[in-house]
Request: fold
Amino acid sequence: MSRDLCRKAGYTFTFLSDAKAEVIRRYDLLHSGAGVKGQDIARPAEFLLDSAGVIRWANLTEDYRVRARPDQLLEQARELK
Amino acid sequence: MELAPVGGICTLPCRLCQHACTRPVSGTRDVPWVSFLLLGTGLAFLFVGLRRAFGQPQQYRGRIAGPILGALSVLFVALLCFVVFYQTRQLPASPGAPKVGERAPEFVLPDMSNPPVSPSSLLSTPFMNSQMPPKGVVLVFYRGYW
Reply:
């Protein structure tokens, strides 16, 4: 399914699957029961890591309609050394 | 001109527009002002129409359709307000989420075709045509499942 989606949408970035929400839980980003059929789902979140794996910027939005914009991320990424 | 039904009908497609058009106007994501503008216009028509329908019933019709569509319109406006100002903001507190300055917790997850991926593997593997490992990595947790 992910492969079909990426091909259709033209995504070339790494596309990971967290089917059991293990990493979502580890990052404390689980929004339990919020899926359309009551599934557990991730709250939208974006993290920018530097080359040492340290978080330099994070966005846990307060409104799931409003997520980080590409230019916001690019601006932050340009500041990485 | 029977404005009450017109106003009511104006507000009805607004909700549909919202789903059909993917961001036709910039800046409508944070506050969907186009929807509110259309809904407001519809309600204004509705109000004028209802006043005419009940104030000058010998001239204007719409005393049955007007209130029905009026009630529906108010319902739609209320629904939009509920979703925009309340529902989409109901998110967990996430006190344990990694913070700026902390090391991102390590993990290993399957990619579609490549071997399993971790933050450290992404940071050490040259990206696409580049010879150098990347300066950083963006982790996006997408709210979806399939």
